[in-house]
Amino acid sequence: MDKVAHVIMFLILSHALAVALRKQQTSMLLQRWSMILAVTCAIACGAFLELIQSTVFDERTTDAADFVANSLGALAGPFLFRLIYGNEIYRSASISDRSQSTL
Questions:
Q1: Percent of the chain predicted with pLDDT > 70
Q2: What is the dihedral of CA 18, 19, 23, 25, to 10 degrees?
Q3: CA 27, CA 11: separation in Å to the nearest integer?
Q4: How many CB atoms are closer than 10 A to CB 49?
Q5: pTM greater than 0.85
């Protein structure tokens, strides 16, 4: 059950990152690469958490299975939510929509 919780947490994390990067309007580059960046950041976060737990906390140990579960959740997040919700949730405002909203 512990590994299921890891998958779900990192699925939510990577999905939230992908949506946030896609919806931001500062950088088109971040929008274009949002899914890859979200997955990469979530996996890096999972690796960091596993490494930090064995070095900082005496009672905790690094668990490779936790890292695998974290990574699977991170990989599944954006793709599963895109499958469920389609492109609508990832769609950002077009340039014409942005220019009309500033008028």
A1: 83
A2: -30
A3: 24
A4: 15
A5: no
